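Entry
Fold in C-alpha cell form

___
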Amino acid sequence: MMPLTPERKAQLDEYAQRHGKDPATALDEVLADALESERDDYNETVTAVMEAYESVKAGRTQPAEEFLEELRVKHGFPR
C-alpha cells in the first residue's frame, strides 16, 4: 500500500479523533462509504442509459430541433 502524504495523514488523524476512532478504522469506514457511493452512482448511470436506449428503440424520442424550440419558448430564450 502507498503511504499517505503528511497532509492526508494529518486530515485522517483529525477525522479519526473527531469520530472517536483509530485512524485505520476511520480510513476503512470513509473508504467504504466512498466506494459505495461511487458504485451507486455507476449503477444509477447504467440504469439511466439503459432506460434511454430502450426509449430510443421504442421510438419514444423527440427531434432535437423540436425539443430545443420548446425549451426556448418555455424559458424565453432568444433565437
